[in-house]
Amino acid sequence: RKYNVGILGATGAVGKEMLKVLEERNFPVENIRLFASSRSVGKKMLFKGKEYEIEEAKKGIYKGIDILLGAVENEQAKEFIPSAIENGAIVIDNSSAYRMADDVPLIVPEVNPEAVETHKGLIANPNCATIIGLVAVNELNKYSEVERMIVSTYQAVSGAGSGGISELDAEIKAIAEGKGFAMKIFPYQIAYNLIPQIGGFDEKGYSSEEMKFQNEGRKILNNPKLKVNCTCIRVPVYRSHSESITIEFKDRIDAEKAREILSKAEGVKLVDDPQNKKYPMPLDTSDQDLVYVGRIREDISNDEGKGLTLWCCGDQVRKGAATNAVQIAELLIKKEMI
Ligand code: 11C
């Protein structure tokens, strides 16, 4: 059987990648419909060599769509998704609008595929840094429960959409030419800089992006006691997010055991031979789906031998967003839920 698929926000960085991933993975598509804002109406996008015209996203026009992949901001997600569900579509939404709702499963297919069985028309795709970090720790968590994580993220400009990529490019060019430039997406110059802010800050001084790792991590790992202290940094890298993660486990674990586990973990590529300069780097993980994990070492500040530190990188646009969403759609088919 083939399916009628829609992409809401088809012209953005994630929407474009969703179309590419559907084609690459040979997803059983009967027909595809592409939705975007009125600005893009009439433009065309290619899918398997055929041109498809972009339609304006509106309420009430989703009849006949089996699966709608959402790649719009929260505001548009809230405006259009209820209507798509009413029209009979199963929606897989990449925004954060519904992630923490009780009746909406939040899924990383390598981690909690069973959660898909509880869906009521809407499934949420987690935050990109959370997906990448959880793919890295998932199998270790099965060996011994993760109790606490200290995470620092190094997030690519693509996390802010295609505008983030063009802003970095424009700044590098303007600086090389000795010209001035204006910031639109980021609050400060991102070229040759780091910005320790992604999202707004709460009363304790944590940014919204930083709290997603704990909140979404608790839901995905089904561990309401999980503690995560996260610092999120925007870095001048195009599209792979990187993370330094120090993990505190329930039981003792050593680096060798962790390497053995991660060498077989789904969705992971172990790249861990620092003596020979082999470790994950964001350029190496861009434009593919695996999360690379390396620099695995015992946490020398954990006297009980229950701590590990690792470094991981993953393509934010793909595994952190588009691929994860398409994998959820594949899960629906595999489980005969559509
Ligand atoms: C960023 N991770 O890098 C953000 C963008 O929760 O899906 C995605 C925010 C989210 O800016």
Describe the SSE topology:
Elements: E1 3-8, H1 13-24, E2 29-36, E3 44-47, E4 50-56, E5 67-70, H2 74-86, E6 90-93, E7 122-124, H3 128-143, E8 146-155, H4 162-176, H5 208-220, E9 227-234, E10 240-249, H6 255-263, E11 268-270, H7 282-285, E12 291-298, E13 307-315, H8 318-334
Parallel strand pairs: 1-2, 1-5, 2-4, 5-6, 6-7, 8-9, 11-12
Antiparallel strand pairs: 3-4, 8-10, 10-13, 12-13
Helix pairs in contact: 1-8, 3-5, 3-8
The chain binds (2R)-2-aminohexanedioic acid.
Task: Give an overview of the whole structure.
This protein is an alpha/beta fold. It has helices at 13-24, 74-86, 128-143, 162-176, 208-220, 255-263, 282-285, 318-334; strands at residues 3-8, 29-36, 44-47, 50-56, 67-70, 90-93, 122-124, 146-155, 227-234, 240-249, 268-270, 291-298, 307-315. The strands form 2 sheets. A 7-stranded mixed β-sheet has the order 3-4-2-1-5-6-7, sandwiched between helices. Strand 1, helix 1 (13-24) and strand 2 form a beta-alpha-beta unit. The radius of gyration is 20 Å and the shape is globular. The termini are close together. The mean pLDDT is 98. The site of (2R)-2-aminohexanedioic acid (11C) has 10 residues, from helix 3 and helix 5. (2R)-2-aminohexanedioic acid binds at residues 96, 127-129, 155, 159-160, 198, 209, 212.
